[in-house]
Amino acid sequence: MSRSRAFHALIIFSVLLAACSPQVIFLPLKTATPTLAPATPTATPAPSATPIPGAELGVSPAALRGVEINFWHGADGAQSALLAQLAIEFSLSNAWGITVKPTGWGNYYKLGGAVASAKTSSSLPDLLLALPEQEATWEQESLLAPLTPYLHHPEFGFSSAEQADFAPPLAETALTLTTVRSARLLAYNFTWARALGFESAPQTPEQFRQQACAANAAWRADADPTNDGYGGWVVDENPWTAYAWLRAFDAEPWNGETFAFNTPAAETTLTFLEQLREAGCAWVSDEAVNYAALPERKALFATINLAEVPEQAAAFRSSSDEWTLIAFPGEAGASYGADLALVPTSPARQLAAWLFARWLVSPEIQGRWATQTGYLPARLSALAQMGEYAAAHPQWAAAAALTAELGAPPLAARWGLARNLLGSGLGAVVIVGGDPRLVLEQMDETFKAVTGK
């Protein structure tokens, strides 16, 4: 089989395998001109009615009492338990008498299957916590209710300042509400970097190359040729790693209408990583996890997400070296997580679902959610309230300081497929040794073959 077909087959297999595994206006009264004739008594204006909160949404607060809403999510483990606890707290404390019934499906793949089944039997929930690409698909299928009437409601919505408090800020026509976020960042052994002569983290791809190659040169300096491959960046083909590298080179694959992989910026990105590996400044590990590589100085850089911070910190306990989290060169990174979306039901149920969603993204609850998961809160004001947690978790604090640089992924129905292609493409170049331009062409071809676009 030719190398071209081999790479093509590899990409298609990886993608398909991954594919299987959202006033009353008062007019001024006219004053009568005085005359000698007796004045005609002026009728007293009728008192204006006090606006009822929620009237514009077709429901009064009284109609919310006793409403029970169903809340489905794909979280698992401790996060699922936290959401169950938050549902109980809201049900017992909210002023409207709303009850929330949460259902956790264990993962987002199962959640998607549950929604697919429920839409055929008209048994959809009132509120969903799901992946953005799932919600983009459901929006195309008219399964989601617009947020605009609630976002800008004077009583139940968000002010302009509150919308700007989200990271990134809420759009005027937002489809979903952002919740806590994980992030894909570089773990960096800065003690070793200083020993190599570098006083600060790399800010550009060239500075990254210099530090990675200096780390590899340190291993080559001894008499043992079997360890000459260590140092630099320990390679992984995680799709979020691929996306973060692309963002570092301004190679965003989403152009607003579709995904285009074969671009000059994307080729520059993969060529840089290919050359890094060929020079020995990046290496592929045989281990399933590589937390020990940094404290053992076998790597200067490794890519992890926020959920992996405890494991990486544990690996450093037996080392005197210190580490932190840094952005990819160019102050880039990738943040990701699940969003809240409303399902069209009745005015009362939709408002009840919105009120629970609004409570979940409040600074106080976002702070609690972030503290218990190690993720980043959706609200900047929540970050400001987490000083004690930040002091006890310096790597998390380093990630939080990068919030402005962590771009949100595309809100596109095919983002899941595109993301898997990114990981496959990264592996095809940096691990297998494929030609960057050829791999990018095949990524475009695969995307078009699967989507028909």
Record keyword descriptors for this entry:
43% helix; alpha/beta; disordered N terminus; 453 residues; D-Maltodextrin-Binding Protein, domain 2; 2 domains; 5-stranded mixed sheet; 12 strands
The number of helical segments is: 18
The CATH superfamily title of the largest domain: Periplasmic binding protein-like II
Strand order of the largest sheet: 2-1-3-11-4
The main β sheet shows up as: 5 strands, mixed
The total domain count is 2
Radius of gyration of CA atoms, rounded to a whole number:
27 Å
CATH topology of the largest domain: D-Maltodextrin-Binding Protein, domain 2
What percentage of residues falls in helices of 4 or more residues? 40-55%
Write the layout of secondary structure elements.
Layout: H1 3-20, E1 68-73, H2 77-93, E2 99-104, H3 108-121, E3 127-130, H4 132-140, H5 148-151, H6 160-164, E4 177-178, E5 182-189, H7 190-195, H8 205-220, E6 233-235, H9 239-248, H10 264-278, E7 282-284, E8 301-305, H11 309-315, E9 323-326, E10 333-336, E11 339-342, H12 347-360, H13 363-373, H14 380-384, H15 387-392, H16 394-400, E12 406-407, H17 415-430, H18 436-451
Parallel strand pairs: 1-2, 1-3, 6-7, 10-12
Antiparallel strand pairs: 3-11, 4-11, 5-8, 5-9, 5-10
Helix pairs in contact: 1-17, 1-18, 9-17, 17-18
